[in-house]
Structure prediction request, 260 residues.
Amino acid sequence: MSSENGGPRTDGEGGAEGAPPEQLALIRESVRKARTPRAKPRTWRGAALAERLPVARVLVDKGVLHLDRYFDYAVPAELDEAAQPGVRVRVRFGAGRHRVREGRREGGGLIDGFLIERRAESDYSGPLAALAQVVSPEPVLSDELLGLARAVADRYAGSLADVLQLAVPPRSARAEQRTSPAPLPPPEAPDPGSWTRYEQGDAFLRTLADGGAPGPCGTPCRDRAGARNWPAPSPPPSPRDAARSSSYPTGAPPPASTPP
Prediction:
């Protein structure tokens, strides 16, 4: 506390060495200095950009249809290694064109998103905001999953961001900190079994084992023994059906039965 006469304390009046002064006017000055922006270098407009592929195309987590497109952001140099396609990122969104200083767009609220791709240049002619943060360096959005989510959104007139909320599991920081085990070896090809009866049965299984997707074929084919396997012959009629069909002339419907 300050002395009763309002004068400043001397070094011998107690208190930790280097502690901020306690007079009201000096406290205001200390608070003003403490509130100096401590933004990370990547959020400053003077931060250096990545030398290679300095533009990141991002899908923001906004489920409204008029924002169902990609937005370009600048990649700071310190995020160059972590900002890879498929990772979760945070960006500033909604700043507007009027909030531009020294060629960088500033302001806007932080919002989550996915980094779709890195590009050498942007199709947007205006200033770009920089990526604010790479949430995790773990890629969670593959090209296959992105294409599937895009097809679902187009088919059911939805937004890509809404589909990805269900397709991509929520982040688990504890699981990401664990060391990933070594990948398992690929499984061995199964025994051909009855596929050996067909001329291309072995080739069909080899294509599946190599990761291919051979298309189905509905053409009747013969096995290696020469016997026809498709279509199967019709079973002979039962004695009751044979007797029933012989009791009525051809083309005449049988009499309708009445319920008991």
Remarks:
- The beta strands are 55-60, 71-74, 88-93, 100-101, 104-105, 109-119, 133-136.
- Residues 11 and 250 are 122 Å apart (CA to CA).
- The two ends are 104 Å apart (CA to CA).
- The longest strand covers residues 109-119.
